[in-house]
Amino acid sequence: MKALVYHGPGHKEWESVPDPAILAPTDAIVRIDTTTICGTDLHILQGDCPEVKEGTVLGHEGVGTVVEVGAAVGNVRAGDRVIVSCISSCAVCSYCRKGMPSHCLGMGGIGWVLGHLIDGTQAEYVRTPFADTSLYKVPDALTDEQAVMVSDIFPTGFEIGVRYGDISPGDVVAVVGVGPVGLAAVATAKLYGPSKVIAVGRSRPRIDHALRMGADVGVSTNDPDWADVVMAQTDGLGVDVVIEAVGVPRTLQDCVRIVRPGGHIANAGVHGRPVELPMESMWINNLTLTTGLVDGTSSPMLIDLMVAGRLQPEQMVTHRFALEEMVKAYEVFADAPTWDALKVAIHREA
């Protein structure tokens, strides 16, 4: 089969690799029908995830068709259309039972293995561990482009941004960074009844996209006084909750500038280096800072909301490619400002 293979920082190739095979009775083999690229894949290519070995097939998001299952798999069978979760869960270890499959002991203490510690979804086929509890059947009402957003982006924006941010009705919420994770946070923050959602970013097209997905106000960081603009939206008090969805030190530091005493900072960005924070002022302002790796436990609920029309994740798809155009898709996604790209949908067939 063909797959996108990592060959060290800055190097990748669409090339022939062996077909995946069942290695455990709980495995399934899924034919990838639609996949996409995540910001985390770019972090890997930048060398921010040294545990990813050369020769690994990248990708942890996908929708496909089950073609083979192991002897112990009972919930899915060949022919089922499924969402491949970015988190593989054994469902029985202590962390999975706590609702934290992100640290599944069945996978060695980390649930994110696809495209990280084992071969991933940017391929014609993928082996999925713990298929019964790591694959979700796709309702007929959802398209592949809707369903693939449940693999990672929407659960991440919701769980690590909105839920960890502890949004309450009436809160003023700022989302700093309006790429795919930030947009997912914007859309799902509205489920909790905030009085105002402020989208903060550099790209005007992305800010406009955030407004279409539910933000009430858009603020560009190209304005040197952008933080004052945000504060003016809160009577000078600061926001109740700020979600960081970029993953660089400056943006997390900026979040501290705009949150009010007693507020929450929810870090959903993937950071590849240390961040210096002003703890001398954060502690006395009673700030809560949360961060984490997505668990994917919200996926069934998000699927239901999509079927009901409450969420329209397909709005984030700006570019479409065939699988054999994977390298071109990376070029577009990695240079998003030039192409006005958000999420790229990569389909088995053009």
Which CATH class of the largest domain applies here?
A: Alpha Beta
The main pleated sheet reads as: 7 strands, mixed
> How many beta-strand elements?
15
Helix content: 25-40%
CATH-defined fold name of the largest domain: Quinone Oxidoreductase, Chain A, domain 1
CATH architecture of the largest domain: Alpha-Beta Complex
**Shape assignment:** globular
Radius of gyration: 20 Å
Number of domains: 2
The end-to-end distance, rounded to whole angstroms, is 17 Å
The average pLDDT score comes to 97
The unreliable regions are none
Compute the number of helices.
13
Structural class: alpha/beta
Please trace the helix and strand order, writing H or E for each element. EEEHEEHEHEHHEHEHEHEHEHEHEHHE
CATH superfamily of the largest domain: Medium-chain alcohol dehydrogenases, catalytic domain
Query: Roughly what fraction of the amino acids lie in strands?
Result: 15-25%
What does this structure look like?
The chain is an alpha/beta fold. It folds into two domains: 2-151 and 295-347, Alpha-Beta Complex (Quinone Oxidoreductase, Chain A, domain 1); 155-291, 3-Layer(aba) Sandwich (Rossmann fold), CATH 3.40.50.720. The protein contains 13 helices and 15 strands. It has helices spanning 39-45, 94-97, 131-134, 144-147, 153-163, 180-189, 204-212, 226-232, 249-258, 279-282, 299-307, 326-334, 336-339; strands at residues 2-6, 12-16, 28-35, 62-69, 81-84, 125-128, 135-137, 172-176, 196-201, 217-220, 239-244, 259-267, 288-291, 317-322, 343-347. Strands 3, 4, 5, 6, 7, 14 and 15 form a seven-stranded mixed beta sheet that branches. Strands 10-9-8-11-12-13 form a six-stranded parallel beta sheet, with helices on both faces. The longest helix is centred in the middle third of the chain and has 11 residues, at 153-163. The model has no long low-confidence stretch (mean pLDDT 97).
